[in-house]
Amino acid sequence: MTYGFTGETTDANGLIYLRARYYNPVDARFMSRDTWGGDYNRPLSQNRWMYVEGNPVNFVDPSGHIAEGIEAKKADIIRDKLKLNYGVEIRKDWGYVLYYAPRSVVVTCKWNKGNWRSLDELSYVYKSVKNTADTMGGPAKFRRAMKNRPVYVTRYNITSDNLTYYALPLADIVLTNYRFKNEKYVTYTFSHELGHIWDIRSGFALSRNMAETISTYYCAGLDQGGLWGQNGQGCFYDIAAGKEPPPGKRDLSENYAGTNAKEDWAEAFGSYVYPHYWKNTQTTVALGPLRKQYVHDKISSIP
């Protein structure tokens, strides 16, 4: 195995492995398209047979994801802005890393493959955080809503929707490939996840109180004194019992807000930040006035 273009390995068939795909130097063609679909704001990036948007003299893409060079510098700038202005900390997994060869004193510096598949993914996150903070009254109020604690964001390059957010150190919001369908979806969904973090740090008071306000949360088997009755059936969440339908699919069995009160709150919050994401159509419902007023009041109460 030898080293070819940009120092990457060449296999026995003469193909150069460029992480995301193979390149055939004989006919100067890639064997497959880029795994990233590109961004409509950058037409050259949408040509998935192209390499670093047709500028291999100035740029390389050793990870197949964020390109080494100016893209990596821009990624660092976005990361710094998120941390300094909003307290949102992106777990950095791209960049140069020192590698120590076994049983040797030789140290090499290599570009580490990151899970962020493009600079645009980071840009979408930044746009969502900025829009969310602006809606909440600015960076200072946003940080106070988050209890002046960092919001950690981790990117996993897996195709799964099982990982979303966690109330754990260094893993408040976990993003998978499923989260990056397009800019509209990403910005809305990330705002939704920020709503979850705000709710978590309020002790789930935001979602619980909204459920009581909308009447989607009720208790059965209680007597007038507020004590358990003899049948003691417990408390329940029922999206269909609410005073207005939640934003999203009209079919409540397919509406994500119907999962639980926490998702109902996060969907209401995301829809408040992005009011045009859900519209009143034959199949979808926009954010209703009761939920809209509730989110507005909670934002207004941020000190």
- Secondary-structure-based class equals alpha+beta
| Separation, N- and C-terminal Cα atoms | 62 Å
User: What's the helix-strand series?
Assistant: EEEEEHEEEHHEEHHEEEHEH
Radius of gyration: 24 Å
| Biggest sheet layout | 3 strands, antiparallel
What is the typical, i.e. mean, pLDDT?
A: 79
**Quantity of strands, as a count:** 14
Uncertain segments: 222-232
Q: List the domain count as a whole number.
A: 2
Q: In DSSP terms, counting alpha (H) and pi (I) runs of 4 or more, how many helices?
A: 7
Question: Looking across the biggest beta sheet, what order are the strands in?
Answer: 3-4-5
The percent of residues in helical segments reads: 25-40%
Strand content: 15-25%
Question: Could you walk me through the main structural features you see in this protein, from its secondary elements to its overall organization?
Answer:
The protein has two domains: 2-112, no CATH class; 119-300, no CATH class. The protein contains seven helices and 14 strands. The chain has helices at residues 70-86, 119-135, 139-145, 183-201, 205-214, 261-273, 289-300; strands at 2-3, 9-10, 16-17, 22-24, 29-30, 88-90, 95-100, 107-112, 151-155, 173-175, 217-220, 234-237, 248-249, 284-285. It is of the alpha+beta class and 303 residues long. Helix 5 packs antiparallel against helix 7 (289-300). Strand 1 (2-3) and strand 2 (9-10) form a beta hairpin. The strands form six sheets. Strands 3-4-5 form a three-stranded antiparallel β-sheet, with no helix packed on it. Strands 6-9-10 form a three-stranded parallel β-sheet. Strands 1-2 form a two-stranded antiparallel sheet. The model is unreliable at 222-232 (pLDDT under 50). The termini are far apart.
